[in-house]
Design a protein that fits this description.
It is built from 3 helices and 6 strands; from the N terminus they run αββββαββα. By secondary structure, the chain is an alpha+beta fold. The chain has 2 domains: about 35 residues; about 90 residues, Pleckstrin-homology domain (PH domain)/Phosphotyrosine-binding domain (PTB) (PH-domain like), CATH 2.30.29. A 3-stranded antiparallel sheet has the order 1-2-3, with helices on one face. Strand 1 and strand 2 form a beta hairpin. The N and C termini lie far apart (about 80 Å). The mean pLDDT is about 85.
C-alpha cells in the first residue's frame, strides 16, 4: 500500500510541476506577444538629442551615436507599392500627405553599425537639423 501511495504522490507532484512550468511559459509568451503587438504609444521608445550625439532608447535596448561616428545617413520612405520604392528623398512629399509618418532614417556608423530611427519619435525635428550634413539629398517629408 505505501508503494502505491508514494507513486501517486510522485505523479501528482510531477503533474503539478508540469502545470506550473506550462503556465509560466504561457504567461511569458503572452507578455512577448502583447509587447510586440502593442501600439507605439505604449512602447517606451525615446530619442534624446545631445550636443555630441543622440541616444535611442527602446524597450530592451539603448543605442548611442556620436555625430563624429556617423559615416552616412539614408532617409527612406516606407512605401506600399513597388513603383514608389525608388523615390528620391526630394520627392517624398509627392507620394502623399502621410510621408512624415512613414519616413525613417538609416544612420550608418563608421564601425559598421546601423541605427534606424523612425520619424514618429518626439524630438525628431532636432535630429533632422543635426543629420543634414550627412545625407546627399534633403528629404522632402
Amino acid at each position: 500500500m505505501t508503494y502505491a501511495r508514494h507513486t501517486a504522490d510522485a505523479d501528482l507532484g510531477f503533474y503539478f510541476s508540469l502545470a506550473i512550468a506550462t503556465a509560466s511559459l504561457g504567461l511569458f509568451g503572452l507578455f512577448v506577444l502583447v509587447s510586440r503587438l502593442s501600439p507605439a504609444w505604449l512602447k517606451r521608445y525615446k530619442l534624446e538629442i545631445y550636443e555630441n550625439g543622440f541616444v535611442k532608447k527602446e524597450f530592451f535596448k539603448t543605442r548611442t551615436c556620436l555625430w563624429n561616428e556617423i559615416r552616412e545617413v539614408k532617409p527612406l520612405l516606407l512605401v506600399y507599392d513597388k513603383a514608389s520604392r525608388g523615390t528620391p528623398p526630394g520627392k517624398f512629399a509627392d507620394l502623399g500627405e502621410d510621408t512624415k509618418e512613414r519616413g525613417i532614417y538609416e544612420v550608418y556608423k563608421k564601425d559598421g553599425g546601423k541605427i534606424t530611427v523612425s520619424r514618429r519619435y518626439t524630438d525628431i525635428a532636432r535630429l533632422d537639423e543635426q543629420l543634414i550634413p550627412f545625407y546627399d539629398e534633403t528629404p522632402n517629408w
